[in-house]
Amino acid sequence: MSIIKIEATINNIGISMENGLHAARVLMGDSLGFHIIFVMFGLTLPILVSWFEWMGIRRKDPQLTNVAKFWAKIMSLLVITGVISGTVIALQMSLVWPGILKFGGEVIGLPFMFETYAFMIEAVFLALYMFTWGNKRVSPILHWVFGLMVIVGSTLSAYAITSINGWMNLPTGFDIVDGKFQNIDVLAAMFSTSALVTFFHSMPGYYVASGLFITGLYALRLFRAKGRELDSKKHLLDYFIVQRLMLFVAVAFVFSWITADITGKYLARNEPEKLAAIELHYETGDNAPLIVGGVADGDGGIVGPHFKIPNALSLLACNTPGCTVQGLNETPEDKQPPLFIHTFFDIKMTLITILAAVIPLYFIARKWRPALLKNKLMLLGFVITSWFGIAIVELGWMMTEIGRQPWAVRGYMTTSEALTKTHDITKFGYLFPLSYVVLFVLTVIAIRRLVKHEQQNPKGVL
Amino acid sequence: MIWAYILIYLPILLFVVAFLYETYLSFARLRGKSRHRYVDATWEVTHTLLIFGVVMLLMLFTKSIDVISDAIFIPTFLAATALLIRAACYIQIFYVREKPNINWTDWTFAFSHVAAALLLVVVVIKSTWLLVTEHPEANLQFIPAFMPGLALVLAICAIPIYVIYSNK
After folding, report:
1. What is the CA radius of gyration of chain B?
2. Contact between chains at B95 and A116 (C-beta distance less than 8 A)
3. Residues 68..97 of B with a Cβ closer than 8 Å to A: which?
4. What is the model's pLDDT at position A4?
5. Which of A255, A436, A442, B40 has its CA 20 to 30 A from that of B62?
6. Closest chain B C-alpha to A239 CA, distance in angstroms
7. Per mean pLDDT, which range of A69-78, A203-212, B27-36 is the poorest?
8. Around Cβ B76, how many Cβ atoms within 10 Å?
9. Which pLDDT does position A96 carry in this prediction?
10. Which of B166, B32, B33, B37 lies closest to B94 in space, CA to CA?
């Protein structure tokens, strides 16, 4: 009887830990998924605001300055939500997953500390920037410089956090001798290959996503306008903004393509099991094909409609078709990432392919068929595709994070080992996502109010 | 070791002062004198001080983070909940709401400050108690790399911070 009781207790603990781990992962996933939206805009809007403010100063055009001012209001609103969701994530990293920092804190703690510098610069100069709009004691150029400092702060902040994530994917900057850390090099950990590759791939991705989304909002405005209204002065400004935004998006898109190729090669060299899971590449070998479509059948095969592009994975991995690409067969089954990330990759690549057509299409239309840009169907197409960038970034991060499973710190500590052993996260696992929904809805309503207010303002830019 | 304590407690002390000021203003609004006015430009800066102090506490004592996180888990998460509620109320009051009437949202906003402040005081007391009684080993290897940067950042931010706070 007592043995049965003990067994039942052990089973219950097992279920509780399993539920706790699941809840903690869901909470972290929800928090990151929510926060990353604000990160995208928090990194992109300072650049766009500064760019338009600069154009306003150079051309002595108050309308462009007002566009910058309007976007700056939205930027500061998004920062309110972004800061609080970022704080919750930082607390989760320490309180829900103490194992990560207990294991590697003495190596990777420094970027967390550096992030406080970056955040301080961003917060202080954003406050100053908003506070000094229209202040006659502050020259336009000085005000613009305050905006540049916001860019510096937000970009450094992004690097610090990305470097921590990079270290979790590829732990470097230390040796373990007799179970203890030796030869700790905190700068090597902070500037690891993984950190640099991830940073330079994600940043243009954020620029594309946010730039495209804002373009979509202007396209929606043009879509709603009646025929003759499209030629009014008000909408001429909209066309100008769209043109500049599309230029910004196109440049960032090219950079993200280049860095995507570098990321593929990095994965093949340093995180081969993640690449194998993304590509459903089971057996190590050369002339590896790229598999498009299909899902893993759980038995080393692929089911569902799919096709193979011969040699493409080998080309992606090291630029030669004969290149050997490591397969999933070399990773023990319990250490393999979930194979559903292959579907994420397929969706992501589909969306990217559509964008690769839509972005040049805009420039072709602008050059040779300007009337097309007033076509309602075309405008609707831009509105729909403007969401793709955000979806691509979300899918990219899900691939990166889920693709590291079962590891929290790759090769050293699993997610379940990193989880707090003393507290059950389940309750917060429900509470926080709910509060994110409330915050998100309020933020959207608040932006709509700002837009409405701008539209009612005779000197407004909408 | 003294630098570790300074890096933790100085920003927390400054945060407490700034946060008490914001709490005072959030209640002062309820009396109706300055309903539309709030310390919006300073809030993020005040918040930065909190993040700075907490990050220093956690990163300088990562070897004992399991013990520290165990002690501060509940009050910290509840404080985060209060700050989330505060952020939601802030957006509702200053961005969404069109009528300036004081209602339950304003009271919730004011009391979210009190709740967050009290919970953060509990966090500070609990972690201080741990540091005093357990004498955990600090990551002092970070200090030489961190301090020059901190001096530079404070030099860059000092005048802007003064301008923002002195004009409110």
Report:
1. 18
2. no
3. 69-70, 72-74, 76-77, 80-81, 83-85, 87-88, 90-92, 95-96
4. 47
5. A436
6. 28
7. B27-36
8. 21
9. 87
10. B37
Q: Token pair of B100, please?
A: 């300036």
Residues of A in contact with B146 (CB under 8 A): 110, 113-114
B158 touches chain A (CB under 8 A): no
Residue A21 tokens read as: 């781990």
Token pair for B89: 């109320």
CB of A123 closer than 8 Å to CB of B160: no
Closest-CA distance of chain A to residue B31, Å: 25
Q: Do A87 and B83 touch (CB under 8 A)?
A: yes
Chain A contact for B38, CB < 8 A? no
How far B157 CA lies from chain A's nearest CA (Å)? Answer: 7
| Domain total in chain B | 1
Contacts of A234 (CB under 8 A, 6+ apart): none
**Nearest by Cα to A105 from A195, A193, A189:** A189
Residue with the two structure tokens 């070998």: A285
Q: The tokens 């566009």 sit on which residue?
A: A67
3-class DSSP assignment, residue A340: coil
Calculate mean pLDDT across residues A358-385.
92
Of the candidates A353, A242, A237, A245, the one whose C-alpha atom is nearest the C-alpha of residue A292 is A353
CA distance A124 to chain B (A): 6
Determine the residue among B96, B119, B120 to mutate to test chain A binding: the one whose Cβ has the most chain A Cβ atoms within 10 Å: B96
Confirm or reject contact between B129 and chain A (CB < 8 A).
Answer: no
Residue A283 gets which letter from DSSP?
S
- Helices (H) then strands (E): counts for chain B: 5, 0
State the residue range of the domain holding B10: 2-166
Between the two ends of chain B, the Cα-to-Cα distance in Å is: 36
Tokens at residue A226, please? 């009646």
Q: CB atoms < 10 A from the CB of A306, how many? A: 14
Query: Residue B166 is which amino acid?
Result: S
How far apart CA A226 and CA A232 sit, in angstroms, is: 10
For residue range A320-329, list pLDDT tens digits in order: 988 899 999 9
Reported as a pLDDT band with limits 50, 70 and 90, residue A81 is confident
Task: With a cut of 70, say whether residue B33 has pLDDT above it.
Answer: no
Confidence bin at A3 (pLDDT 50/70/90): very low
Q: Return the pLDDT at A11.
A: 44
Nearest to A119 among B48, B95, B146 (CB): B48
Q: Which residue of B has its CA nearest to A85?
A: B84
Q: What is the ipTM of this complex?
A: 0.84
Q: Tell me the pLDDT tens digit for each residue of B45-98.
A: 777 888 888 888 888 888 888 888 888 888 988 888 888 888 888 888 888 887
Q: Which of A143-152, A325-334, B103-112 has the weakest average pLDDT?
A: B103-112
Structure pTM?
0.90
What pLDDT is attached to residue A12?
A: 46
Among A28, A77, A84, most B C-beta atoms within 10 A, so best to mutate, is A84
